[in-house]
Amino acid sequence: MSVLSESAFAELVEPYRRELHLHCYRIVGSLTEADDVVQETLLAAWRGLPGFEGRASLRTWLYRIATNRGLNALRRLARRPREAELPEPTRLAEPLWLHPYPDAMLDAVTAPDSRYEEREAVGLAFTTLLQRLPARQRAAVVLVDVLGFRAGEAAAMLEATPIAVKGMLRRARATLDAHRESVPEAGDAREREVAALFARAMEDGDTPAIVSLLTDDAWLTMPPMPHEYQGPAAIAAFLESRARVRPGPLTTAYTRANGQPALVAHVHAPEGVRPYGVLVLAVSPAGLERVTGFIGPAVFGHFGF
User: Side-chain half-sphere of 64: how many Cα atoms within 13 Å?
Assistant: First the structure.
């Protein structure tokens, strides 16, 4: 393909930018890293465009670049030190470097013959499980089982043989199937109701009101910290301990992340209002099944705050 101006190239790849970003997020688990990987992908594509011979579609070629840039990013991230000494985990062995993904940024995410329904394919539980897979298995599952590429196409992207990719898929599917979580759909109205009650209780510092929303086997997690709290009593004790050291009350705003209801929280400290975190909720007809808290300001800009 001939050399294009920067504006012409931008117009050429714009239809794929959003889906590439979601793909990179699935590979690396981080919104900010996905931003960087997409930029690296598009820069590499622009520079490599004269050598693009059209033997695969432009979309396939872009996914090949994005996948390999994402795998390179994971190798860099593997050398990242822990931000703090962490307590012993309850059942997770390593820190999970994961961000929530704003629904406002979601694009078409699954192929018609995907192994996963769209709701599951963007959900936080599935995204978390992906991060537990070895990097190349993760890439193979996303390319074939979510996006619908053939095993031979994925093999070309991963510079592997089709037999090797089928082996990656077999092992990855076994892991995913063994740990898949299914939260029954509560419906939009019920999700909004529970999210509103949870927000009010968080702002009021009303731990009993929060506990009243939880199912008996509810979980609270806080990536990247590899510890979890299960059950109303354990969650209540944790929330009380956090409230004692938090520098002020919280205010929240409703949003959605990974296809789920979520709250963006700010803390009103003596020195001023500052970002606190994003809380993603999994709601079933029975109540609040899981709260995943992403503490810190890293992704606030992606949520419009």
Answer: 20
